Amino acid sequence: MSDVVIAVPGWYTDIQRRALLDAANIAGMNPLRLINDTTAVALGYGITKGDLPEAADSPRHVCFIDIGHSNYSVSVTAFSKGQLTVKSTAYDRNFGGRDFDWALVQHFSEEFKTKYKIDVLSSPKAVFRLSTGCERLKKVLSANAEAPLNVESIMNDIDASSSMKREQFEQMTDHLLVRVIAPIEEAIRKAGLTVEQIDAVELVGGSIRVPAIKDRIQAYFPGKTLGFTLNQDEAVARGATFACASLSPVFRVREFAVHDVTPYPIKVMWDKEPGNPDEDTELVVFPQDNPIPSTKILTFYRKGPFELEARYQEGASLPEVINPWVGKLTIKNVEKPSSGDLTCVKVKARLNLHGIMNFEGAYMVEEVEKEETVTIGEAEEKKEEKKLVKKMQRKGDCSVVGQYTSLAQTAVEGMTEKEGNMHAEDKLVMETEVGLLRLGPVLPLTVAGSQKRSRGIRLRHAGQAGRSLCHLRAREREIVSPLRPSRF
Ligand SMILES: Nc1ncnc2c1ncn2[C@@H]1O[C@H](COP(=O)(O)OP(=O)(O)OP(=O)(O)O)[C@@H](O)[C@H]1O
Ligand SMILES: [Mg+2]
């Protein structure tokens, strides 16, 4: 099976989505769609609901709130029978369970300075051990008023321990808790709704289990029952699975249309045509919250070849370090028209199902006069007449060259081959391990990760010499002796 639908944070940009598609292709997958994760949750919610309003009635508005480990997403989605429409989304890209863990790490590392005379933050290993303990403590505090912290051999052979009350945890994470409402407020405002017009609130993501987060959300939706009907850990994967099944020809799934939107505005820029000083030089082709997929036709009047550049509009709140450049199109062989001196060129721009923008070609059109039969007059006075009508007619395609941030096909092929080789090598190691296991208990099969690759190569040589179990048995001493003996 290679058809997949991959869920991504809705705030992923063009370059991030292209990189993910390249990675999926290199891994031998066939990505049918990148789906925004809150949209996947919405699909999983809607596809099984039998009581959605008819298309003619006002839709059911549901606010989905997903707080995970590092990322917080909200969407407001309208449901009608057989379809969902994402009305708006809002994000806090750097908010989630890890911020709460880090607040705890900072607190306990201060405490341990005086208690054990150690500086946890000076040792990455100690920070890792303390973070694991703090995450455990945080989870226990979700169901208990107090929780212990025990970290074995945190550093300098010291076993550290402490405890915390939920009240104290909530006080020390207040600077995080105040950030819970902003994305919800933004999403509802962008959807053009009020809190009262939200019919249901559904919560997903592991961090939604923190009682103080739940309380803040509940206070924002007074009188509404918060929904926990979706599996908090699996809701995204479940929705993506439905999306994959609907797109794949192998399965039959209930028809359910998904109308999603793009999070950032994309503009197209060009140079002025000489002799036309009043011409604009840019246009926002796909504004924020533009439906996906979507196609737009851009019209230009040109004498010769020209270039277009697509980029995210200034002010689009892209993740830091993301280059706003999306792509470039060079339009060649623009022919001079027989009449007039400017050729009308139409360029097709498409925001596809993955949320990626491409220019899908360009063609020339010209105005022609055609004789057509038209009906004039009314009722009994109606009559048909032949008339010359001006019409735009497609003249021919322009040859175009597009440049985007995706990897070149040859690079993808090269990496796919490398990946295939590594996979084959690992598979051989696994098969040989299974084979050796069947030979009996004499073989030490626990090997440190760092040794795995070299052992794989050794075993590959063995495999080349003959991979049958018989042969392996004959060579078992030779193959196995250099390996580290099992600790068990
Ligand atoms: N019982 C609990 N109480 C508090 N926090 C919890 C609990 N269970 C899980 N978490 C936290 O939920 C977070 C993981 O949530 P989730 O699995 O939704 O994240 P993710 O989808 O992997 O990450 P992201 O969506 O941010 O990319 C972790 O920070 C974890 O500590
Ligand atoms: Mg998540």
Descriptive account of the structure:
With 488 residues, the protein is of the alpha+beta class. Residues 443-488 have low confidence and may be disordered. The chain contains twelve helices and 20 strands. The protein has a seven-stranded mixed β-sheet. Bound molecules: adenosine-5'-triphosphate (ATP) and magnesium ion (MG). Residues 37, 66, 68, 205, 236 line the site of magnesium ion.
List keywords for this structure.
alpha+beta, Nucleotidyltransferase, domain 5, single chain, Substrate Binding Domain Of DNAk, Chain A, domain 1, binds adenosine-5'-triphosphate, 488 residues, seven-stranded mixed sheet, globular, five-stranded antiparallel sheet, 4 domains
Topology of this structure?
Elements: E1 3-8, H1 14-26, E2 30-36, H2 37-46, E3 60-67, E4 72-80, E5 83-92, H3 97-115, H4 124-143, E6 146-155, E7 158-165, H5 166-172, H6 174-177, H7 181-190, E8 200-204, H8 211-220, E9 226-227, H9 235-247, E10 257-261, E11 266-269, E12 282-286, E13 291-292, E14 294-302, E15 306-312, E16 325-331, E17 343-351, E18 357-376, E19 383-398, E20 400-404, H10 409-439, H11 449-465, H12 469-480
Parallel strand pairs: 1-2, 3-8, 5-10, 8-9
Antiparallel strand pairs: 3-4, 4-5, 6-7, 10-13, 11-12, 11-15, 14-17, 15-16, 16-20, 17-18, 18-19
Helix pairs in contact: 2-9, 3-4, 10-11, 10-12, 11-12
The structure holds adenosine-5'-triphosphate (ATP) and magnesium ion (MG).
